[in-house]
Specification:
The chain is mostly helical. The chain is about 65% helix and about 0% strand. It has helices spanning about 5, 10-45, 60-65. The radius of gyration is 22 Å and the shape is rod-shaped. The mean pLDDT is about 80.
Length: about 70
């Protein structure tokens, strides 16, 4: 007999829920730093930072150790 048929609907639902939650957590963790850099680059356009304190681009914000 097929092992999938032995599993109930609830256990299949729980398995899918755990897999979807894990995939979401991994993708959010990977994208969060990139979103933070995007927001910093957008916000520096409206703040009164000196030219020296502004980031020149994505990679500068990525490797830079100072923050706004």
């Amino acid at each position: 007999m097929n092992p999938e048929k032995k599993k109930g609907n609830f256990s299949l639902f729980c398995e899918d829920l755990i897999c979807a939650g894990g995939a979401t957590a991994i993708s959010r963790t990977a994208v969060a730093p990139l979103e933070r850099i995007r927001i910093i680059l957008q916000a520096q356009k409206v703040t009164s930072l000196t030219e020296k304190d502004r980031f020149s681009g994505f990679f500068d914000a990525l490797v830079s150790t100072h923050s706004i």
